[in-house]
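User: Here's a protein and a ligand (fe (ii) ion). What would the complex look like?
Assistant: Let me lay out the input and then the predicted complex.
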Amino acid sequence: MTLSNWLFYAPTKIVFGPGSVASIADEVKALGASKLLIATDKGVAGAGVLKRVVQPLEAAGLAVTVYDGVEPNPSVTTVEKCYALFVQNGCELAIGLGGGSSMDTAKATCILATNPGPITLYGGANKVPNTPAPSIAIPTTAGTGAEVTQTCVVTDSTRNYKVSVRSTLNVCKTAVLDPLLLTSLPSAVVASTGMDALSHAVESYLSSGSSVLTEALSLEATRVIAKRLRAFVANPSDESAAADMLYASMTAGLAFSNGRLTAVHAIAHALGGHFHVAHGVACSLMLAPVMEFCLPVAAEKLAKVAEVMGEDVTGLPKDQAARKAVDAVAKLAKDIGVPTRLTQVGVTADKIDVLAADSDSSGIQNTTPRIPSIEEIKTLIQTTM
Ligand SMILES: [Fe+2]
């Protein structure tokens, strides 16, 4: 083992398993709350998933307020609306029920409960002064890992910029991971969120902020995603595939929350801010190009990625084995039908300068093993058009 210092912080209680959402009232009570708000979106509310959470809560005598206005890439205004409802109803705890957007809205609401707004004041690392109100995450997609990370992302619509709030205080108290909540997702959502999870896994492995522990988690997540994502996309009602992907996305979340990310997410956030590209699609588009860009400095790690993805690298020189990882990621994206060119998702060349500038200023890319310059970011975007 490399002789090095590292810190790993993952204080979230994880409750995993089919049907685990039935115990949600116990989890809320364990945190001392009797009035709570659920942040979710209209899709989750309409699909009946919300009912499966609200019923046990109300049966236990808890007062439930629902905010179902969360949109993809939630805005500062959305967070403020949710927070207003939280205050109006005297809530003590927020549950994020949905994908990353709903969990992030709940986390941001809990920050505002104990810290003055706007939420954008806390963009960056460890800028949240006061411990937020308690939050519980119930993911209904397998991708973001927000249930165990120290991050929430909110879009500042005035400048089309995604603000990432990263703080050791910004963690959910409890994550309830019930794979049965995932089995009615459209295949396209399974595919894009799965590629977000794969990005977290591979990026945190390559990251210069990784440790032996995050690397172990990154590789485990990469292995499971490479093995199971195709099956889950092919049949989103496959409970076993849902459980594996939910496990993998959480594991990747633990890895990147501590090991950090790379230029993939820096550029993906800029694409989300300016073109509203779905987060997982944006990550998927940039993952293979950034891996290839890192190849000259990260061949050994990329060769390991290829190996855990099931590629035969026996006897190959490291750089050739590494290239197999780039190809395997590109092939997975293609096989599951995620767009592979930026032009397919409406990205236009006239915004390349601002996309590169926003990626560079995000700070996220500073742990890329080969940090791209602004000119190199432009090239990465240009060659993916
Ligand atoms: Fe992500």
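Summary: The two ends are 41 Å apart (CA to CA).
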